[in-house]
């Protein structure tokens, strides 16, 4: 079949628009489409189906093999992975993305497999944050280390880490208050929280999970950059993918910073947490 | 900045005295890219660029103003026009009835915090304000509003977790009228616009209390879906305005354009921080500058 280059251009433009509408951002969308355009020019791709498949494959290879490590969570209860002590996760991110809810879901995942889980109430600022976490500990069967009145977050995390060690918990999940990556004072406080965990338990935190709200646009990259620089991020949690947003802005995060997606939030309930499935993610982008 | 990238685009064009369809191609592509980079939804960018082009082609030549300066000015002016031109405040009902303000939006956008901020704002202007807690789903949501109400010195009406939200709202507004309140602000649970059950619930709350303002609370960092979600919320409960939150960050806030373009509703306030005094009036020209930055 003879297929004109203009037709290819039309297909490529439509696909670029589809990427943009999925929050890839114009730069990343253009870069991905341009690479495919090269393949069209070289004659490697002959039909709109070829083009779509090539585009899908290039996005898949981007998200499936990030340079910054595997999408497996660091967790080995009682094993040497955490030096025999509790595994520690620090959960961070901007306001309202789903950190506290994700902790509740994560706790449930591990308690339902027999692990002993402790939650640390590291959000000492927001109204009813402690009560919200306490209710999640009840729902998930985890214990909770509450903040004492007027305590600073790094002190709460330090105490929780010591308790996790002393009482032989398998996993410690540390909540932190939402904060904008543009606030130097709050980013410094987060760095201090991380150091506090490390001094209580050498090797901790074994994961620093950045929660990214799936409805967010291109700002995801700025968030990931700043949180990465301040506290070091080992994995991403992409939430609210049960909504209409496709979370495409995360692709630029993986492409430019190499941080792997480890978890996906798909609802507000205890069970609504999934391990990242690259193929499913890409399928949702190109239905 | 937009003017920097436009400089680059114009650099490829000779020093023309007027804007033509040909010499505008590259600059319009740059403007499109800049708006998308600011999270303005694609379905809002397209008609906007068409309006800019139409206005630019019809524009008279101004002595001493380069075509590119003219284009930047047109883009800025169109943004301000789109955003609503001037500041719009809350509706004030007739005959001494209280203002009834209904907060709505996706999960985590800042509704509960903003309800308290709005209460503080109106209380400081001398009004008697009451808050109503109808989020019976999120753990400790009622508690959160009660604590915030305490912080700003405003009473919070709640009926626990087992009364339907529409009934809580109805009872709260009835009590507010009885007590001679000037304003009653109803906080609601975050919901997906594609959740039929919860969108129906929002409709029921609205029918039960007949709000004088229904405000969509939108996160400044919201991406391309802003247009779709505004549309769905607006067809479910007619919106009268919006509040854009977390503008103290560095998200450009393209979703703000979507609000006005899709619903025709003005943005009435912006959230500029986590504290209960971090609520400001919305200024269209400031938003235009932020999007073009
Ligand atoms: N639909 C949906 N909602 C979610 C998801 N994850 C969290 N939420 C909701 O998002 C809202 C905010 O969740 P939180 O867990 O309080 O978010 P946070 O990051 O801890 O917020 P701050 O501590 O205030 O910064 C709540 O209404 C949650 O139920 C998800 O995967 N899908
Ligand atoms: N930096 C900043 N944070 C804000 C702003 N408005 C709200 N927040 C924060 O955003 C987070 C979510 O606020 P909430 O008021 O719980 O949001 P919500 O819409 O009621 O959430 P749901 O009820 O779960 O849907 C909290 O951490 C707030 O402190 C703002 O203007 N700036
Ligand atoms: Mg939280
Ligand atoms: Mg709320």
Topology diagram in text:
The complex is a heterodimer of chains A (287) and B (293).
Chain A: H1 5-21, H2 26-41, H3 48-64, E1 87-92, H4 99-111, E2 117-120, H5 129-140, E3 143-145, H6 153-166, E4 171-174, H7 184-200, E5 207-213, H8 219-231, E6 235-239, H9 249-257, E7 261-265, E8 273-275, H10 278-285
Chain B: H1 2-11, H2 21-37, H3 42-58, H4 67-83, E1 99-104, H5 111-124, E2 129-133, H6 141-152, E3 156-158, H7 165-178, E4 183-187, H8 196-209, E5 213-219, H9 226-236, E6 241-245, H10 255-263, E7 267-271, E8 279-281, H11 284-292
Helix pairs in contact in B: 1-2, 2-3, 3-4, 4-11, 5-6, 7-8, 9-10
The structure holds guanosine-5'-triphosphate (2 copies) and magnesium ion (2 copies).
Give a quick rundown of the structure.
Chain A has helices at about 5-20, 25-40, 50-65, 100-110, 130-140, 155-165, 185-200, 220-230, 250-255, 280-285; strands at about 85-90, 115-120, 145, 170-175, 205-215, 235-240, 260-265, 275. With about 290 residues, chain A is α/β, with parallel strands linked by helices.
Structure overview:
The complex is a heterodimer of chains A (about 290) and B (about 290). Chain A contains ten helices and eight strands. Chain A is of the alpha/beta class. In chain A, α2 (about 25-40) packs across α3 and α7 (about 185-200) packs across α8 (about 220-230). The model of chain A has no long low-confidence stretch (mean pLDDT about 95). Chain B is an alpha/beta fold and about 290 residues long. The longest helix of chain B has 17 residues, at about 20-35. The interface between A and B is large, with 42 and 43 residues. The complex binds guanosine-5'-triphosphate (2 copies) and magnesium ion (2 copies). The site of one magnesium ion has 5 residues of chain A, from α4.
């Amino acid at each position: 079949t003879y297929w004109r280059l203009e037709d290819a251009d039309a297909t490529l433009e439509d696909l670029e628009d589809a990427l943009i509408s999925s929050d890839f951002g114009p730069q990343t969308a253009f870069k991905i489409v341009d690479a495919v355009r090269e393949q069209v020019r070289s004659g490697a791709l002959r039909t709109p189906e070829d083009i779509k498949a090539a585009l899908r494959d290039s996005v898949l290879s981007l998200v499936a093999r990030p340079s910054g490590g595997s999408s497996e969570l660091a967790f080995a209860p009682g094993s040497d992975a955490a030096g025999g002590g509790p595994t520690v996760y620090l959960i961070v991110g901007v306001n309202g993305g789903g950190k506290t809810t994700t902790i509740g879901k994560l706790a449930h995942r591990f308690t339902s497999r027999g692990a002993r889980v402790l939650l640390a109430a590291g959000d000492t600022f927001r109204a009813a944050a402690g009560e919200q976490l306490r209710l999640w500990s009840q729902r998930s069967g985890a214990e909770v280390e509450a903040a004492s009145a007027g305590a600073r977050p790094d002190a709460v995390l330090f105490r929780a880490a010591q308790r996790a060690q002393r009482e032989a918990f398998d996993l410690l999940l540390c909540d932190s208050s939402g904060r904008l990556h543009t606030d130097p004072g709050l980013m410094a406080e987060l760095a201090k929280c991380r150091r506090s965990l490390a001094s209580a338990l050498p090797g901790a935190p074994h994961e620093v999970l950045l929660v990214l709200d799936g409805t967010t646009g291109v700002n995801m990259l700025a968030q990931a950059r700043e949180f990465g620089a301040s506290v070091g991020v080992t994995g991403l949690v992409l939430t609210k993918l049960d909504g209409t947003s496709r979370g495409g802005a995360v692709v630029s995060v993986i492409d430019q910073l190499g941080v792997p997606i480890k978890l996906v939030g798909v609802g507000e309930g205890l069970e609504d947490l999934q391990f990242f499935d690259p193929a499913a993610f890409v399928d949702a982008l190109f239905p | 900045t937009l003017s920097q990238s436009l400089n680059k685009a114009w650099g490829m064009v000779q020093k023309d005295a007027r804007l033509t369809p040909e010499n505008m191609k590259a600059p319009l592509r740059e403007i499109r890219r800049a708006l998308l980079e600011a999270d303005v939804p694609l379905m809002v960018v397209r008609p906007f660029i068409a309006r800019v082009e139409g206005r630019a082609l019809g524009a008279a030549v101004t002595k001493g103003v380069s075509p590119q300066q003219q284009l930047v000015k047109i883009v800025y002016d169109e943004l301000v026009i789109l955003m609503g031109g001037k500041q719009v405040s809350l509706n004030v009902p007739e005959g001494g009835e209280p203002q009834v303000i209904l907060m709505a939006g996706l999960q985590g956008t800042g509704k509960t915090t903003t309800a308290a901020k709005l209460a503080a704002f109106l209380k400081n202007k001398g009004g008697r304000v009451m808050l109503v807690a109808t989020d019976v789903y999120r753990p400790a949501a009622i508690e959160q509003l009660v604590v915030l109400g305490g912080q700003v010195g405003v009473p919070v009406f709640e009926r626990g977790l087992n009364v339907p939200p529409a009934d809580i709202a109805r009872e709260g507004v009835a009590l507010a009228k009885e007590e001679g309140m000037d304003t009653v602000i109803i906080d609601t649970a975050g919901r997906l616009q594609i959740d039929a059950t919860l969108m129906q619930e929002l409709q029921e709350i609205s029918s039960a209390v007949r709000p004088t303002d229904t405000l969509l609370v939108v996160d400044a960092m919201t991406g391309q879906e802003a247009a779709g979600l505004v549309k769905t919320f607006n067809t479910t409960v007619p919106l009268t305005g919006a509040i854009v939150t977390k503008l103290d960050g560095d998200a450009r806030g393209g979703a703000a354009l979507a609000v006005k373009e899709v619903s025709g509703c003005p943005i009435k306030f912006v959230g500029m921080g986590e504290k209960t005094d971090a609520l400001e009036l919305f200024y269209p020209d400031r938003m235009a500058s932020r999007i073009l930055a």
